[in-house]
Structures are given as C-alpha cells and as structure tokens.
C-alpha cells in the first residue's frame, strides 16, 4: 500500500493506493498544518482502507505543511502532486486550476503529466479560499452555502478591491447600501474568477482544463470561472484529494523505481 | 614571509576602509558625496571627493537585519510603503543617522544618475532639498529603442561636461584632466576584471558560488575607480581560475546539481534563508544581469564612449534587449533554470519580468519560477512560498534533465 498526504493551510488530505495503483481510500479533514489534522487524517484513512501502518510501503507528503512533516519517505511540492494526481485520474487535461486555502495556482502539464509551467498567486490572499472564508463571515453564512446563494443572484455587483481586507470593507458598504447577500456572494466569486483568469492568461492556458482544491467544491465559482474563461472546466473526481492522490502515485513510483 | 591575502580578505578590508575613509574625510572637513550605483564616479574620483553609495549602505543595513527601523521611520515621515525600500531605508537613515552595524557620513553633495531607475530622481532630489546641499543630476532617459540612440549619448555627454563645471564651482578647484584619464583607465580595468572573474562561472561546475557575487558587487559599486578594487577582482579571478582548473565546484561539501540565474536584487534581509533553500537542492546561481551591468567600458578620454557606456546598462534598456540578454546568459552559462525575484521595491524590473520570463522560456525552453520578495523590506517575503516555488523549479529541472538523458 502507498500513502499520499497533502497538508494544506486549512485542510489535511490523505489517499492510499494499492499495488495495482487502484485507489483504496481517500480522506479529508478540514484542519491543516500545525494542528492534529495531519495525524488524524492518516489514522482515519487507514481505518477506511482497513490497513495498518506496517502495510504502508512508502509515503510521500506534499502541501504547505510538507517541510515540517517528518514521517514520510519523501516530500514533493503540491505543484507536481496535483499534476500527477490529475493525470492519473483524468485524460487529456493540459491546464489545472488549483485553489486552496492560502494559495491559488494554475499549472500547465504535458500530455504525460509532467509540469510544463505554473504560476502562483502573489503573497496575498486575493483569489484564494481564505478570501471566500472572509466573504462568508461578512455575509453571515457558512462557506458551503456560498455556492447556492450565488446561484440565486439577480444583479452583477462587482467587487473591485483585489486586497481581501479592502474587499471586506467594500462588501460591508455594499450590504449597507442595500445589496443582497446573493448578489454579493456572486460578486465575490466573480472577483476570484477574474484574478484566476489573469493567472491563466499569464501561463498560457489550453484545453482541457480542470479544477482542484477545496474551492472547486463551490459549484458557482466553477461556473463563473468557466464563463470568464469561455471554456468548460471539467470536474475532477475527488477534488480536494487530488494532491494526496498524486502524492500516493509518486509513492508507488518511487517505491517501484518508476520515477 | 607574508602570505598572500585571499580576495575575500581584501574585499572585507577594502570595504571597511572605504567606509572609514569617508567618515575620516567628513571629520576632517572634506567634501563627501552620496551617489547612485551606476553613476559616472570617475568625475568624483578625479576631484578626490569621498563618495558613499546609499544603495550599498541600505543593502548592508538590510543584510544586518536593521532595515525595519529606518523603513518605519521613513513611512512615519510620510513616504509610502510602495516606494523602493532602499529609498525608505536611506531617507530614514538621513534623519536617524545611526546604525550599529555601520554608519556613513552625511553628504555635502548629491550625485545622481537616473540610468538605474526613476525613483532615484525624487529620492536624491528630496535629500538635496532637505539637507540644503547641491545636487548634480544626470537625467538619463530610458532607451526605448534597442540601441542607445545618438541623441541620448550627446545628452549624457553634455551633462558630464556640465557636471565638471559644477564640480569646479562647488569645490573651487580646477578639474585635472590628466588625473581624469588615469581614473578612466583604472575604472575600465576594474570593470574588465569584474567581468572576467564573473565569466569564470561558464565552467561546469562553476568555481563561482553565486551568492558570493552579491558580496563582491559591493566594491564594484563603491570603488571601481580605485586600484585596490581592481586587485580584488584580479585575485578573485586567479583563485577561481585555479579552482576551475582543478575541477572544483562552488560547494565544499556537495555537488553543483543545478545551474540557475537569479534575476534581480537579492532579498538582503533573508539572504541566508534564501541561500539555504538553494543549497539544500544543490542549486548554484551562476550568473545574473549584474556582471554586464558593471561592465562599463570605453576608451580613455573618449567622453562620447563614456556617455554611451553609462546609458547602456541593462536596467536602462528596452524589453527586446533584456530578453536577448537573458537568452544569451542561458546559452553562455548552460543554465538549467531561472529564478525571477519579483521585487516589490523595483517597479522597473518587475514591470517587464513576466514578459521576459515568457519569451525567454519560449526561446530556450528552460523552466523558471517567480517568487515575491523585496530587496530590503523584510515584511515582503514568505519563506514557505519561496521554498515551494524553488522546490517546484527543482522538480521541473529534474524532469527535464531526465528526459534529456541520452544513451550512447
């Protein structure tokens, strides 16, 4: 069995694949690096897979928390792991949009899944999951409700501030002047989408495109982003666990010296 | 028998002496100038005016972890946090005038050349106005054409001639043209040895450890009109030549696994942590745009040539020149990757960086990465983000290496 762990800033993900490279189990816990998230996700994914620690032949860790995690055989960046995970799960993908808790990246991959080029957001929360967390707090809803809210929007309310802190004040002032929560939710999604489109243009995106990371669970973001890109975004299975699955595939390859 | 000093010893001694001499000169009532890094220092050297370079001092303050005090002070004075951090450190220093890690004398004259950026124009003008001292300004327009146009050369030459008049008026002394010729000769030789030494990095493995270049750069900025500076580069050259002949690489305890270029200024406040990440992966920065920026060459007594040389540095050249320059570095130095420092301070470099990256990648296929940082503001840097980007570059370089392996 081969274990991949993806320790992000706001969630921990794990995946186990077997000697036939088939996925045995995946698991996600919504707390990330610096918490008990990493150990808990490993424990629970092994329970799901019904295996013991001794059966794990090789472990690869990825994500923001990879450098401080000591119990893996190797650590690989989330850029390579998302590319590996996507090319394992899907065929024909050449561009990956991954939006996580604290960073957003657009990765171009070769037909064989190797990373061709990538761009990441600047040292700033604009266009990331953190931005949506802040927006949800201001709108008084749970982050999981944003998608449905935005689906029922009737007006376009642009949020022009790129900075998350300024966008927060902008949203408060929009709400104060009578804008609906639904419209503002959609405005927040549009703001992320525009930011990501800029990154896509920089890296020179091409079809097919998929989206990974926690924010991909927000269907309205995916829809708005598709519209802005003028291109269908293919849904990735196991959206949040793609990085961990990629790490598990690397673990398999390293152990069997295919890498 | 006296053992020969290493270039590093000579470098450290020369820098210490450079700052001491300036402080002593000031204490003795001599004129001291503050100048920009790629200015026609030949004029000041000829007039025997001691010069210190605020950019170099700001970098030193940054590397010694002292920048924030001065930056916060400058921001308190009303300077925006969006302004270059060298400018903020120096503006703050001009008021506080005390840094435990090394002081510079206050200036009696400001000597500024805008061939490196536009920020220096207002930064140095503000210093001159605030301190109520004379300002000699070389206005060096950006070269929008590939070659430096003749009208720019004429414009710069006229400004050099006018600066000589101003210096004569300010000091009350005649400009000595024989001494000027001597200084021109020394300055050119120094630049030649700087280039020769840094060019040794074409060897694989490179005898030059890239971060050393950041250190040796201090004297090409501060002392290129002095024989002592030329001797440092000659010694450095000899040392590296020997290393190259013995096949020695940059690291004592490891291989040079990857050869990269670093685009832009160092992150001085995070010099050691940025270096350690590179070292961990066996990355050697073998070159940058700096070797060529101080390759300021012209014939002795050729004022047009001097004017052209000072208009020709990388920062003052157009996009196509920049792309061609970096593409050539990739070829000449057998680079496997490029690290672009998106330096919040330096609008001039950042403005074209994405396009340089895109077109150099198109031309060479060499992978690259951009990270966000700042030359002296310690707040604009995230270690985690930096490390992820560098490691991702390593993974791309490793894949590329693997796919290029040929079996004979």
Number of helices of chain A: 8
CATH class value of the domain at 7-179 in chain B: Alpha Beta
Q: What name is given to the CATH topology of the domain at 7-179 in chain B?
A: Rossmann fold
Number of domains of chain A: 2
Helix content of chain A: 25-40%
The CATH H-level superfamily of the largest domain in chain A is ATPase, nucleotide binding domain
In helices, the fraction of residues of chain B equals 55-70%
| Shape descriptor of chain A | globular
Q: What structural category characterises the helix and strand content of chain B?
A: alpha/beta
What would the average pLDDT of chain A be, to the nearest integer?
92
Order of helices and strands of chain B: HEHEHHHEHEHHHHEHEHHHEHEH
Low-confidence stretches of chain B: none
Largest sheet of chain A: 5 strands, mixed
Strands of chain B, total number? 8
The count of strands of chain A amounts to 10
What proportion strand of chain A?
15-25%
Determine Rg of chain A (CA atoms, Å).
Answer: 18 Å
Question: How would you describe this structure to a colleague?
Answer:
The complex is a heterodimer of chains A (259) and B (408). In chain A, helix 3 runs parallel beside helix 5. In chain A, a hairpin with a 4-residue loop joins strand 1 (2-7) and strand 2 (12-17). By secondary structure, chain A is of the alpha/beta class. Chain A folds into two domains: 1-90 and 237-259, Nucleotidyltransferase, domain 5 (2-Layer Sandwich); 92-236, ATPase, nucleotide binding domain (Nucleotidyltransferase, domain 5). Chain A contains eight helices and ten strands. By secondary structure, chain B is α/β, with parallel strands linked by helices. Chain B contains 16 helices and eight strands. Chain B is globular and about 70 Å long.
């Amino acid at each position: 069995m081969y274990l991949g762990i993806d320790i992000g800033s706001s969630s921990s993900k794990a995946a186990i694949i077997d000697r036939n490279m088939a996925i045995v189990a995946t698991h996600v816990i919504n707390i990330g690096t610096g918490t008990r998230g990493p150990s808990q996700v490993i424990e629970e994914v092994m329970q799901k897979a019904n295996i013991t620690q001794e059966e794990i032949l090789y472990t690869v860790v990825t994500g923001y928390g990879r450098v401080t995690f000591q119990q893996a055989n190797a650590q690989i960046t989330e850029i390579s792991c998302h590319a590996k995970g996507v090319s394992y799960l899907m065929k024909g993908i050449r561009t990956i949009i991954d939006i996580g808790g604290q960073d957003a990246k657009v990765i171009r991959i070769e037909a064989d899944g190797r990373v061709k080029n990538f761009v990441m957001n600047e040292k700033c929360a604009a266009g990331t999951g953190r931005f949506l967390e802040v927006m949800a707090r201001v709108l008084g809803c749970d982050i999981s409700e944003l998608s449905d809210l935005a689906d029922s929007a009737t007006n376009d309310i642009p949020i022009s501030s790129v900075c998350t802190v300024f966008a927060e004040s902008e949203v408060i002032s929009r709400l104060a002047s009578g804008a609906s929560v639904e419209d503002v939710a959609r405005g927040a999604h549009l703001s992320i989408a525009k930011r990501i489109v800029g990154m896509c243009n920089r890296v020179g995106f091409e079809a097919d495109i998929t989206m990974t990371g926690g924010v991909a669970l927000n269907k309205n973001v995916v829809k708005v982003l598709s519209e802005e890109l003028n291109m269908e975004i293919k849904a990735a299975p196991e959206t949040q666990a793609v990085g961990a699955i990629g790490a598990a595939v690397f673990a398999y390859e390293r152990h069997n010296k295919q890498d | 028998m006296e053992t020969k000093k290493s270039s590093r010893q000579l470098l450290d001694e020369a820098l210490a002496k450079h700052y001491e001499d300036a402080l002593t000169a000031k204490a003795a009532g001599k004129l001291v100038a503050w100048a920009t890094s790629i200015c026609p220092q030949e004029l000041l050297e000829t007039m025997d005016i001691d010069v210190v370079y605020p950019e170099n001092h700001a970098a030193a303050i940054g590397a010694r972890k002292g920048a924030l005090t001065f930056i916060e002070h400058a921001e308190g004075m009303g300077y925006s946090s969006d302004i270059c951090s060298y400018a903020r450190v120096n503006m703050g220093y001009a008021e506080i005038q005390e840094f435990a890690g090394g002081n510079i004398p206050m200036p009696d004259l400001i000597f500024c050349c805008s061939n490196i950026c536009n920020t220096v124009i207002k930064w140095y003008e503000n210093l001159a106005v605030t301190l109520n001292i004379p300002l000699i300004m070389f206005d060096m327009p950006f070269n929008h054409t590939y070659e430096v146009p003749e009208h720019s050369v004429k414009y710069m030459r006229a400004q050099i001639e006018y600066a000589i008049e101003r210096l004569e008026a300010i000091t009350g002394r005649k400009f000595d043209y024989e001494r000027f010729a001597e200084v021109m000769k020394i300055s050119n030789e120094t630049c030649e040895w700087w280039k020769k030494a840094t060019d040794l990095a074409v060897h694989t493995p490179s005898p030059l450890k890239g971060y050393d270049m950041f250190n040796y750069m201090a004297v090409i900025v501060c002392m290129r009109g002095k024989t002592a500076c030329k001797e440092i580069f000659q010694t450095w050259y000899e040392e590296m030549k020997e290393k190259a002949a013995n096949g020695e690489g940059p690291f004592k305890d490891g291989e040079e696994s990857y050869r990269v270029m670093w685009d832009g200024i160092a992150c001085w406040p995070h010099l050691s942590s940025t270096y350690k990440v590179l070292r961990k992966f066996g990355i050697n920065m073998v070159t940058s745009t700096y070797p060529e920026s101080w390759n300021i060459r012209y014939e002795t007594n050729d004022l047009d040539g001097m004017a052209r040389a000072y208009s020709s540095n990388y920062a003052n050249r157009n996009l196509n020149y920049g792309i061609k320059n970096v593409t050539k570095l990739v070829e000449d130095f057998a680079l496997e990757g490029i690290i672009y420092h998106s330096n919040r301070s330096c609008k001039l470099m950042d403005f074209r960086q994405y396009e340089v990256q895109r077109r150099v990648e198109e031309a060479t296929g060499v992978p690259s990465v951009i990270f966000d940082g700042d030359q002296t503001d310690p707040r604009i840097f995230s270690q985690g983000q930096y490390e992820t980007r560098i490691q991702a570059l390593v993974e791309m370089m490793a894949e590329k290496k693997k796919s290029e392996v040929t079996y004979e």
